[in-house]
Amino acid sequence: MAFTTQQRDWFFLEQQRKRRRTPHALVQRYFHDLDAAAQQYYLLDSPVTADRIVMSVYSAAGSNTGLPTGAPIPTAAKLVELDFAYSGTLSEIGKNGASYFTGIIADLVAYNGGLVVGRWSFNTNLSSPVVPDLVGGNNATAVNMTSADAWQATQAGADWLGDELVDSLLNPSWQQQGGGTVTALTSTSFNSTLGGAGLKKVAAVLDGQTYIINAAGLDNVELWFGLSGVSAQKILADGIYQITVATGNTDIYFRAQFAGVASFDSVSVKRLMETAL
Amino acid sequence: MNNWLLINLAAVPVEVAEAQQALANHPGACHDGVNTVYTWISQEAAAIAVTLPDDIEDEAAYIGQHLATQSAPLIAPKAVLSALFRTPAWRLWCANYGEDTAQFVADKAELGLPPALTQEQAREAVYAMFAGV
Fold first, then answer.
1. pLDDT band (50, 70, 90) for residue A21
2. Closest residue in chain B to residue A247, using alpha carbons only
3. Backbone Cα Rg of chain B
4. Which of A143, A177, A200 would best serve as a mutation to test chain B binding (most B beta carbons within 10 A)?
5. Most buried pick, A202, A248, B80, B133, via CB within 10 A?
6. What's the confidence (pLDDT) of residue B92?
């Protein structure tokens, strides 16, 4: 059954409305972290002429650098929808001339003369660089990106939560940090012969990104993001916390306050992307 | 862990350079005209690369000294390299300010370099600082 362009537009809009009306439905998707430092962007198979762009973006810093000309400055650290007039052809997404975007582009719809001429949702795990065009088959290629740049998220209310980052302490990804001898005893406990020592997971979080932490039953253990006593972001007691990871604090540490067994009932660390949509 | 590769393609064996450039959708990013950062790592490059130790305190100084004194590719976490590429030291190292003189002036002040230094002089000063000469 063939649909007219107007019917497709209506269908997409209805889908968006339904998603907003049913916040409790389990919705999962992938997002891609674009980093200007690695010049990551999407290259369209063919340029499209557009006079209007509607796109959902997340920029931790609140920057429109690398977005299409005319894009307003997005609210920092929020997934926002930008709807703006555009003039010319669009051949790259996440790159504008020599400027590259740092953040997430969750969706982009290009219009021309009131018709949708391309739509990309960037909802792939990047095992393949192909990002499909949901309208006209004008696919995009993810440039300088690997599957490590994709992260899966689950919709939570209006926001998005990433997968759990704290796994069993018995996992080899948790390495000793500090002096003495540190031994993982169970998935949630370890023994340290020295206060201040513990287990760390290197490069577990991304600086500049926001995470939600739910800690329960902390016993002789502190959760640190970053190691420096001055700049580390510390969870010292049970509770629910929201932090934005400071530059350099990308390692997670479980540190024993004192020598002996350190344990917790449960600790959850998940990436949080708040939406302003 | 999401590791990136920093490599001087002209300083490694040809077969390594060719292998690292084999993927069409991975042209890499070269900020300083010498070293290219890749988000994927070929087996050939990995075989000769140095991996950033995870127990050093000043990662930027380590990377700077490595680039200034060694030709082997460097593997480091994305978080480390991405943060490095946003530092004044790296911007001075790359000397690609163009017309952005305000950023250049601010970066020199941040590193305590004389305000009168040109971009090339500032680049040499940062290079010497990292190289330890």
1. low
2. B83
3. 15
4. A143
5. B80
6. 92
Least confident of A5-19, A97-111, B114-128: A5-19
| 8 Å CB contact between A27 and A154 | yes
Q: Is the CB of residue B38 less than 8 Å away from at least one CB of chain A?
A: yes
Q: Do A203 and B37 touch (CB under 8 A)?
A: no
Phi/psi region, residue B123 (left: phi>0; alpha: psi -120 to 50; beta: rest), is alpha
Which residue does chain B place closest to A144, by CA atoms? B26
Confidence of residue A77 (pLDDT cuts 50, 70, 90): very high
- Cα gap B92→A168, rounded to integer Å: 42
For the cut 60, the answer to whether the pLDDT of residue A7 exceeds it is: no
Note whether B83 contacts A141, CB cutoff 8 Å.
no
Kindly give, in sequence order, each residue whose CB lies less than 8 Å from that of residue A186, ignoring residues fewer than 6 positions away.
A169, A170, A263
Q: Give per-residue burial for B53-84: e unless 16+ CB within 10 Å, then b.
A: ebeeeebbebbbebbbeeeebbbbbbbbbbbb
User: How many pairs of residues across A and B have Cβ atoms under 8 Å apart?
Assistant: 64
3-state secondary structure of A254: strand
Strand-pair category, A159-164 with A266-273? antiparallel
- φ/ψ (deg, to 5) at B61: -65, -40
- Model confidence at A17, pLDDT cuts 50, 70, 90, reads low
Q: From the list A35, A144, A250, which residue is nearest B28 (CB)? A: A144
Inter-chain touch B79–A148, beta carbons under 8 Å: no
Name the percent of chain A lying above pLDDT 70.
90
Comparing CB atoms, the residue among B29, B80, B82 nearest residue A144 is B29
Sequence-ordered alpha helix ranges (H) in chain B: 14-20, 43-48, 59-69, 78-84, 88-94, 101-111, 119-131
pLDDT band, very low/low/confident/very high, at A8 (cuts 50, 70, 90): very low
Given an 8 Å threshold on Cβ–Cβ distance, is A40 in contact with B39?
yes
CA-to-CA distance for B93 and B110, rounded, in angstroms?
Answer: 14
- Nearest-CA residue of chain B relative to A148? B2
Neighbouring CB atoms inside 10 A of A46's CB total: 12
ipTM of the complex: 0.91
Q: Say if residue A2's pLDDT is above 90.
A: no
